[in-house]
Amino acid sequence: MNDSILLQADPRRDLVFERVVDVPAPALWAGWTRPDLLLQWFTPRPWQTVDCRIDLRPGGVFSTVMRGPEGQQLGNVGCYLEIVENRKLVWTSALGPGYRPAPPVPAGVASFQMTAIVALQAQGSRTRYTAVALHADEAARERHEKMGFHAGWGKALDQLVALVGPAAGASALDADAGR
Predict the structure, then answer these.
(1) Domain range 18-100+112-169, CATH architecture
(2) Confidence band, pLDDT 50/70/90 cuts, at residue 142
(3) Across the chain, which distance is largest between two alpha carbons, in Å?
């Protein structure tokens, strides 16, 4: 994998989350690419992901709907830009499925588009998990950071590890639902 994009993160515009976890990369990959699994971990609790569509190919849709504890819903639609099985996912909310330009984001707390890179670097039975959120400008990065980027991505990763890690057993990964 070419890690240059991860090494060129701009601290003024980008947010980086990195951790080594005791889960093999293929299990994390399954959590990111199977809707039946992603629905269970993607949104930090008490929020929940209530809908997910994945068309795992460049230009394919990556869409989620998150519901807050008071019933508010946030939808996110984007498209995949790069897919390297068990190693790297890149998607953006700046483009919709088929690389069509996304409509402008309405004003509000989450009013920014971003490109996300999730890199999985196998280290034996462990994986270096790196997530980079690329923003158009400093203001968007600041809004995302104030929304709780680091805590949220950390909590979501904890939920993913609990779902597909060794303590969970193989049951979550053995299910064929949503494939």
Answers:
(1) 2-Layer Sandwich (3.30)
(2) very high
(3) 45
pLDDT at 126 over 70: yes
Q: Which residues of 83-114 are buried (b: 16+ CB within 10 A; e: fewer)?
A: eeebbbbbbbbbbbbeeeeeeeeeeeeeebbb
77-90 tens-digit pLDDT: 999 999 999 999 99
Sequence spans of domains, the chain: 18-100+112-169
Determine the pLDDT at residue 177. Answer: 43
**Two tokens at 27?**
């299990």
The DSSP 8-state label assigned to residue 167 in this structure reads G
Residues 97, 61 contacting (CB under 8 angstroms) = yes
Sign for the CA dihedral angle at 144, 15, 48, 78 comes to positive
pTM for this model (two decimals): 0.89
Q: Are 35 and 54 in contact (CB under 8 A)?
A: yes
